[in-house]
C-alpha cells in the first residue's frame, strides 16, 4: 500500500511494500490456510445443493412447483434489505456486515492470519487490534481497525503502522470485469488527525484500496487515502514501468458521521477502464482510463494504515457489498444515475 507525492513535476513513491508484496514470497502456511478456506466453502456449497435437492424431492422448500433458490453471499450474512433506498434490481455477489462481536481473529499465534469467519486475511501487530464493535452502519456492528504507537513492521509496512484486512477470495477484480461496490467508513471519537507536514515530513494514511496482486509499483491501483488536510483518491494503471496517475480530492474528515461510498468500476489496464465514485449519494468524480496494471488483478483491503506519528487511532468499516447494479449496493439514489 502506498501513497505518492509530487516533487519537481514527478510522482515519487513513498512506500512500495504491502500485503501484495508479502504474498509473492514463499508462504506455504498462508496458502495452505487459503486452500483450507476454499475447501470449507466448497463443502458448504455442496451441502446446500444436497439439501435443496432433498427439499425439492419431498415437495418442500417453497410453493408447489418449486422456485429458484439463490446461494447465500460468501460472507454467510443475509443480503441487504432495501430499507429507505432504491428498490433492489440485480444480484448481490458479496456482502459483509461483521455481525459477530469481539476479536476478528482470536488465534494469537500468529497475530496475522485468516479471520474467524474464514473470509478475511487479518494484518495486525498483536491480537485484538481488529475487533467487531457495537457501532455499525448495517445491523448494529462494524469492524474497528486500531493501531497503537509501535505497530510497525506488519506485513511489510516498514516504519508505517498497520491494521488491515484483505478480501483475497471474493474481489474478482480482473481485466474486463465491471462491478458495483459499496462500503461505509466511520471516524470515531478516538480517530486522530495526522500531524501537519512540516520540516520535510510527509504524513499520509490509507483507509481502503483495491490492491494490486502482482507487486505493482505503487500497490494501488485505486486507493482512498487520508492526509492532514482530509480525504483523497489516487488511481493508477497501465504500464507498471510507467503507470498513469489520477488524483481526486474528496473532502475533510468529520468524526461521528458515516461516509457511504459507492463505486462503479471497469477493471482494465487500457483506456476503456473507468472508476466512478459517489459519497452519500453525491457524485465525487468520474475517472476514465486504466484502473489496473497490465497483467495484474486486484483484491480489496480495508485499512488503518499510516505513517507513524506517536498516537493511537481507530477507524470503523462496515457494509461491504459487491453487486451487479447500483440498486443492490447503494443505500440511497445516486446523483446523475437514473432508475
Structure, described:
This protein is mainly beta. It has one domain (12-328): Jelly Rolls (Sandwich), CATH 2.60.120.200. It is built from 2 helices and 19 strands. The protein has helices at 19-23, 28-58; strands at 4-7, 10-13, 92-96, 102-103, 113-114, 121-123, 130-133, 142-147, 161-167, 178-186, 205-212, 221-227, 230-237, 244-251, 258-266, 274-279, 282-288, 298-306, 313-323. The strands form 3 sheets. Strands 3, 4, 7, 8, 10, 15, 16, 17 and 19 form a 9-stranded antiparallel beta sheet that branches. A hairpin with a 7-residue loop joins β15 and β16. The two termini are 36 Å apart.
Key features of this structure:
339 residues; Jelly Rolls; 9-stranded antiparallel β-sheet; disordered N terminus
Write the layout of secondary structure elements.
Elements: E1 4-7, E2 10-13, H1 19-23, H2 28-58, E3 92-96, E4 102-103, E5 113-114, E6 121-123, E7 130-133, E8 142-147, E9 161-167, E10 178-186, E11 205-212, E12 221-227, E13 230-237, E14 244-251, E15 258-266, E16 274-279, E17 282-288, E18 298-306, E19 313-323
**CATH top level assignment:** Mainly Beta
Counting DSSP E segments of at least 2 residues, the number of strands comes to 19
Mean pLDDT score: 81
Oligomer: single chain
Low-confidence stretches: 1-84
Overall 3D form: globular
What amount of the residues lies in strands? 35-45%
Number of domains: 1
Q: What radius of gyration results from the CA coordinates?
A: 20 Å
- Alpha-carbon distance between the termini? 36 Å
Amino acid at each position: 500500500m502506498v501513497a505518492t507525492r509530487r516533487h519537481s513535476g514527478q510522482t515519487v513513491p513513498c512506500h512500495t511494500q504491502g500485503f501484495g508484496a508479502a504474498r509473492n514470497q514463499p508462504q506455504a502456511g498462508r496458502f495452505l490456510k487459503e486452500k483450507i478456506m476454499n475447501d470449507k466453502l466448497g463443502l458448504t456449497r455442496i451441502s446446500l445443493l444436497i439439501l435443496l435437492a432433498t427439499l425439492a424431492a419431498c415437495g418442500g422448500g417453497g410453493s408447489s412447483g418449486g422456485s429458484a433458490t439463490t446461494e447465500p453471499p460468501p460472507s454467510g450474512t443475509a443480503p441487504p434489505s432495501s430499507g429507505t433506498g432504491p428498490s433492489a434490481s440485480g444480484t448481490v455477489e458479496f456482502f459483509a456486515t461483521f455481525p459477530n462481536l469481539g476479536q476478528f481473529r482470536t488465534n494469537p499465534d500468529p497475530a496475522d492470519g485468516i479471520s474467524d469467519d474464514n473470509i478475511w486475511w487479518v494484518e495486525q501487530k498483536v491480537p485484538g487490534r481488529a475487533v467487531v464493535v457495537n457501532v455499525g452502519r448495517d445491523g448494529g456492528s462494524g469492524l474497528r481497525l486500531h493501531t497503537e504507537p509501535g505497530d510497525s513492521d506488519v506485513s511489510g509496512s516498514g516504519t508505517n503502522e498497520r491494521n488491515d484486512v484483505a478480501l483475497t477470495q471474493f474481489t474478482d477484480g480482473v481485466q474486463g470485469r465491471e462491478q458495483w461496490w459499496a462500503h461505509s467508513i466511520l471516524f470515531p471519537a478516538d480517530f486522530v488527525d495526522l500531524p501537519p507536514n512540516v520540516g520535510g515530513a510527509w504524513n499520509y494514511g490509507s483507509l481502503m484500496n483495491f490492491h494490486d496482486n502482482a507487486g505493482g509499483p505503487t500497490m494501488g491501483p485505486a486507493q482512498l487515502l487520508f492526509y492532514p488536510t482530509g480525504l483523497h483518491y489516487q488511481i493508477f494503471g497501465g504500464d507498471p514501468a510507467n503507470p498513469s496517475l489520477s488524483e481526486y480530492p474528496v473532502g475533510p474528515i468529520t468524526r461521528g458521521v458515516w461516509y457511504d461510498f459507492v463505486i462503479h468500476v471497469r477493471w482494465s489496464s487500457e483506456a476503456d477502464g473507468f472508476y466512478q465514485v459517489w459519497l452519500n449519494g453525491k457524485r465525487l468524480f468520474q475517472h476514465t482510463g486504466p484502473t489496473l496494471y497490465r497483467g495484474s488483478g486486484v483484491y480489496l483491503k480495508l485499512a488503518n494504515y499510516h505513517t507513524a506519528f506517536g498516537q493511537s487511532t481507530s477507524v470503523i468499516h462496515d457494509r461491504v457489498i459487491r453487486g451487479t447494479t447500483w440498486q443492490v449496493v447503494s443505500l440511497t439514489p445516486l446523483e446523475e444515475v437514473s432508475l
